[in-house]
Amino acid sequence: MTQYDHPSPTSFLLDEENRQLILSWSDEHESIHGWENLRWACPCAHCAGEGGLPGMLQKRQSLSEEETTLVNLEPVGRYGLTPVWEDGHRTGIYTYEKLRAMCECDECRRKVPKR
Ligand SMILES: [Zn+2]
Ligand SMILES: [Zn+2]
């Protein structure tokens, strides 16, 4: 049996005050994800494009508050989560790996120098 041993989220919290998602992981990490950053990273075909065609996000300069308000998170198999946004968008599958790579906590930001 192949063991998929990437840490998995055990619970989540919607921090409405700071508009961020806090995920608790099986390895005890707590990851932080600003809702707006999360929405901009939506990997679905509609947002990110497909087959060489640009997606919705590439044509936009900004997103509305509805589009960047997270209302729920749904599990996708045992490998990912789908955020449910206030505007009804819910087709983006964020794998655990992607979410961990996107973590905005101080510790992770120090580890992965961006830009
Ligand atoms: Zn999307
Ligand atoms: Zn982190």
Automatic annotation (TrEMBL):
<keyword id="KW-0408">Iron</keyword>
<dbReference type="GO" id="GO:0046872">
    <property type="term" value="F:metal ion binding"/>
</dbReference>
<protein>
    <submittedName>
        <fullName>DUF971 domain-containing protein</fullName>
    </submittedName>
</protein>
<dbReference type="InterPro" id="IPR038492">
    <property type="entry name" value="GBBH-like_N_sf"/>
</dbReference>
<dbReference type="Pfam" id="PF06155">
    <property type="entry name" value="GBBH-like_N"/>
</dbReference>
<keyword id="KW-0479">Metal-binding</keyword>
<dbReference type="InterPro" id="IPR010376">
    <property type="entry name" value="GBBH-like_N"/>
</dbReference>
<feature type="domain" description="Gamma-butyrobetaine hydroxylase-like N-terminal">
    <location>
        <begin position="14"/>
        <end position="100"/>
    </location>
</feature>
